[in-house]
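Single-chain item
Fold in token form
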Amino acid sequence: MKNAILATWRADFTRRQRNSSFIVTLLCMMVLAMIYFPAIDAAYQTVSVNGYRGIYNSAWVGTTLALLDVSFLPLICFYLIKGSIEFDRNSHSSELIAATSVSKVAYILGKFLSNFSVLLCILGSMLLTAICIQLWHAEDSTLELSHFILPQLLFVVPTLLLVAALALIFDSVKWLSGGVGNVLYFFLFMGSLVGLSLSDWGTQQILMQMQDGLSALGVAAEGHFRIGFGPNDAAVAGAIKIFRWQGMNYATVNWWPSFTIVALSLLLLSLAMVLFDRFKRPASQVRKANQSKLDSLIAIGFAPLNLLFDGLTRTFAFTRLVRLEVMLLLKGWPNGWYLLVLTLVIAQCLVEPEWVSGAILPAAWLLCVVVLSPLGQREARSFTSALVFSTSLAHYRQFLAMFFAGVLVLLFVSSGALLRFALTQQYFAIGLLVSGACAVVALAIVLGVLTKTPRTFEIVFTLLWYMGPLNKLVYLDFIGVDVVASEHVNATLIFSLSTLMLLALAAYPRLHRAN
């Protein structure tokens, strides 16, 4: 078994290393580490305690790196390592693996080691960057490597073990391996991992010791911490406050959170071994002639809409192409998805107005993230690019048809709210919803064209959805939760211009390939 584990680890890790995206990833993470530590006159700040920032010595830089890594890396790194099992399925090497004597335990352990090795490479690159940053700023050029290494071992490495195990859980469960899992992990991260890492059991210990070091200098302990990227008000005022911190007192550190996370990682790893099917193909089932009752109800419910859409689009070749693109987007989803969409559309007509924009519409659009994510890269994944780009001007029509199809899907799941807005003469809300739909679909297309994977849009849209409609950040509120604020900044114009720029960015690679 040992040889099988090492062979699986070596094969998967070597494959990732040879991919050009691996080097790009390391470079991006090194840039992120540089952004972690702004200059004294920078317009932003990442970590502060009671309004103070520590001098960039080894203690502050090494511990702050661990603090920020635990806060951000679980979200970033999960999407970087997720999909290793799915890669074997899509590359058809799964059939070779299933034919060998490699057991489920050996395969999962090899994949886990590969995931963890990638994460260690990322952590190592950021650690080297942090050391260079201390020397670059030269606020204190004395290097003490223990202050860099110990916080990573205590706080970051256990978290990365948990992320590596979670990625295998999501890869092993079929319905979690795709876009649904990507969206679900985002909320799992926001609700659980951040709370775990920043609780009294987690890296809150770092902040408390930083505050104790500040209190020893006679500064009142106000308990005000900042973690993340925010404006540096002190730098704007020209009087940033700094202090010298001597580092963690590990004799008083509670080690049990780290042991708990490691134990949880091993438990999840064992669960992944149980859930992994070792590439077994389910027996093909012949579909019966008589549909189930649920299929029949859904067919009856959508039949009038299908007939109406067919009648409206059959006149022109372009509209027929749009209809086919809509059918491609909506084909193959489980019955529960269609029923949930119909329920949300009906609810938009019945619930209180504040619930429509505040809850029903965001939920309906979030349902569409996995529907829209294939836009822009479907022909590449289906190996039909040569067919699509072979006919003169066909790529123009197909590109526009793809865009309008995505917009129609979003407008359909918002149709109840649009009808309500029309009856109450809320024309700006209608325009905002339409322009927001155009911007979202254009974003899906450009990310699909540039990255050739649906995962990028699923991650980016969920993040924008969280910051915009959910937290009412007006410039990202593409649904119009706060219509008054959106009208004040003329959000429809912003989203319309964004749509044009994104479509132009997406169209250029396609036109270049067609020529």
Notes: The CA atoms of residues 114 and 455 lie 20 Å apart. The beta strands are 44-49, 52-54, 225-231, 241-243. The chain has two domains: 2-275, 293-514.
